[in-house]
Automatic annotation (TrEMBL):
A Pfam family the protein falls into: ThiS
Sequence ranges of Basic and acidic residues compositional bias: 71-83
Region entry Disordered, spans: 66-97
This protein's name: MoaD family protein
Superkingdom, natural source: Archaea
InterPro entries: Beta-grasp_dom_sf, Mopterin_synth/thiamin_S_b, SAMP1_3, ThiS/MoaD-like
Length: 97
């Protein structure tokens, strides 16, 4: 199956670009695709996966524009032609009040 993955923020830097389109095997889950991408881009894995192997809660994931929520997100089944979006969560606040 062919998927397009868009990377945003620090994930874009880790993946050496804003998007990639590539072939994956049939019947892929979100977790399997992210693991394959982490193998391709060494610095991506620690940003996406926690030490427990789960997708970090601060990583926003969408498939075809629909947010992937709930647990386990890594089990979300993907289809040929899907478009994934990965973005790090925003932190901070405070600022000037």
């Amino acid at each position: 199956m062919q998927l397009t993955v868009e990377f945003h923020g620090t994930l874009r830097d880790a993946a050496d670009g804003s998007s990639v389109t590539r072939q994956f095997g049939d019947d892929q889950t979100l977790g399997a695709v992210l693991e394959a991408l982490a193998d391709d881009y060494e610095s991506l894995g620690p940003l996406v996966f926690g030490s427990d192997g789960r997708i970090r809660s601060n990583v926003a994931v969408a498939v075809n524009g629909d947010p992937v929520t709930g647990e386990p997100r890594r089990d979300r089944q993907l289809s040929d032609g899907d478009r994934l979006m990965l973005a790090p969560g925003l932190a901070g606040g405070g600022g000037n009040r």
